[in-house]
Amino acid sequence: MNIAAVAVVGMATTFVSAWPLRKLALRYGILDRPGPRKRQREPVPYLGGVAVVAGVAVALTVGQPHFFRVLLLLGLICALGLFDDLRHASVPSKLVAETAVAIAAVGLGFVWQVTDSIWLNAVISVVWMVGLSNSFNLLDNMDGLSSTAAAVPLLAFALIAPVTLPLAVALAAAALGFLAINRPPARMYLGDAGSLTLGFGVALVAIAAANTDRGLHSVVLLAGPVALAVFDTSLVIVSRLLSGRPVQLGGRDHFSHRLLLLGWSPYTVLCATVAASAISGLITYLATRYPSGWAWVALPLAVAYAGAWLRLLGVDPYSAVVDYKPEVVRAENL
């Protein structure tokens, strides 16, 4: 099966499977309910991550059946996220489980060959997979955001490093298929099951892409296309440290929240996400062509990226008045 067919199958399977899963979530109360740090005013069903994994699984099974072990890893991460959606696992237990799956991925060959030390490469790879998984989990703070932030870098990886094509396209197709139901106003959420899975999948693709080159080019290939995830995570961490807030606690201080405070609409934020991710892919492509003369175009683009980071750091999300409805729990549900 060609790549176009893999993409169509992935999108179609994800979109079609999302609807019965949505009904299942509504029936059994698997919902994300309104709260102080949430924008929605009504409960929204979870299980979107299961639809994404289904889309990736069918696409790869039909088109690239040798990816069976990768699908198993994605299924494990999805199961971990689903448990957290249902039971709210503690942060330490989540990190331990994510690390275990990342170690399994290293065992399957997903190791960034960045140094001469096998063990150091393995440790760096595990940290990368766990870190990026949680970065995309943090990005899942606005309707359609995590799906969009994953799809564009995955397509960039597929174009820049063709070795990643099958997995990158299958994951991107699933993310886009789910975006149809996850766009504002979202009728279904990824939940941790979906955002962790997408982040983990992107991390695997990034490692495969990075291993196609060496030195600084390898570093750029690893992190360049996912610069927006690094942008957001670093923005939140620095902002919380500067304001004396605990880094590990959630909050409405991500780049998306700051843009909304500046008066941007949700769809404008999504368009900015597409643009920023596309620019990240372009910077990556240009930088990996150095020392070609036109590769220097990447430098002003990277500077503009840094300028946007500083501009958003100057937006204070902590003094803003948050308008939300308090969660109401009926007595019969207690």
What does this structure look like?
The chain is mainly alpha-helical and 334 residues long. It is built from 13 helices and two strands. Helices cover 68% and strands 1% of the residues. It has a two-stranded antiparallel ribbon with strand order 1-2.
**How would a textbook summarize the main sheet?**
2 strands, antiparallel
Query: What is the beta-strand fraction?
Result: under 5%
Low-pLDDT segments: 321-334
SSE pattern, N- to C-terminal: HEEHHHHHHHHHHHH
> How would you classify the helix and strand content by structural class?
mainly alpha
- How many angstroms does the end-to-end distance come to? 51 Å
Looking at how many chains there are and whether they match, the oligomeric state comes to single chain
Helix content percent band = 55-70%
Give the overall shape.
globular
Gyration radius, to the nearest Å? 19 Å
Count of helical stretches: 13
| Count of extended strands | 2
